[in-house]
């Protein structure tokens, strides 16, 4: 039995930070999420933009993941305006790599929400939930080597990078511009020491 087999644990309906609400998904999120996933700037570090149908299927998988694992990707909302700006949270990668099984902290925000520190703020709340109520021992994050903004978020939330652990993403063909990925990690002990 792995650490991931111990779920589902009780999951919160929402988390709040100074400026953000991390909450469960509602139907009204689907349209702005699809618009965001079709934006070439937002999807620059992914293999392709998503169709509306693909975006809706992703929402369905996210919602299903909450029931399976007891944690997941929260819809992200700016508290002051109530505006949906993307997602942040925890997920279980579904591919084979040297660090799997693992739990990943991840985020995707609409372009008009960039540059405000929202990803960092929400990712910190996700780590607190992961190492607190979810009881995880370690959380990872990974992205294409070209995605410097996300790597900066990983660094700001206290994750560490060992270049020896970088990997070729198995779902991308050899030579793809995004094939090479960096891996960041943080343990519960490292997180606790930073609090």
UniProtKB/TrEMBL annotation:
Keywords carried by this UniProt record: Transferase
Domain N-acetyltransferase as annotated: residue spans: 20-179
Matches recorded under InterPro entries: Acyl_CoA_acyltransferase, GNAT_dom, N-acetyltransferase
Origin superkingdom: Bacteria
Presence of the UniProt keyword Transferase in the record: yes
Alphabetized Gene3D superfamilies for the sequence: 3.40.630.30
Stored Pfam families: Acetyltransf_3
Entry-linked SUPFAM superfamilies: Acyl-CoA N-acyltransferases (Nat)
GO molecular function: acyltransferase activity, transferring groups other than amino-acyl groups
Record-annotated membrane-spanning stretches: none
Protein's name according to its UniProt entry: RimJ/RimL family protein N-acetyltransferase
């Amino acid at each position: 039995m792995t650490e991931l087999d111990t779920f589902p644990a009780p999951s919160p309906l929402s988390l709040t930070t100074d400026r953000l609400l991390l909450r469960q998904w509602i139907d009204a999120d689907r349209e702005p999420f699809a618009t965001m996933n079709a934006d070439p700037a937002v999807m620059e570090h992914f293999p392709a933009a998503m169709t509306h149908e693909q975006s809706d299927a992703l929402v369905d998988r996210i919602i299903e993941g909450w029931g399976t694992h007891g944690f997941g990707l929260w819809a992200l909302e700016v508290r002051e305006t109530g505006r949906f700006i993307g997602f942040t949270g925890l997920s279980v990668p579904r591919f084979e790599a040297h660090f799997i099984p693992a739990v990943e902290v991840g985020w995707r925000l609409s372009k008009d929400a960039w540059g405000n520190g929202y990803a960092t703020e929400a990712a910190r709340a996700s780590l607190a939930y992961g190492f607190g109520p979810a009881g995880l021992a370690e959380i990872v994050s990974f992205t294409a080597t070209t995605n410097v903004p996300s790597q900066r978020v990983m660094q700001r939330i206290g994750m560490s990078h060992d270049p020896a652990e970088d990997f070729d993403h198995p779902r991308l063909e050899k030579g793809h511009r995004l094939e090479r990925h960096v891996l960041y990690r943080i343990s519960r002990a490292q997180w606790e020491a930073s609090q």
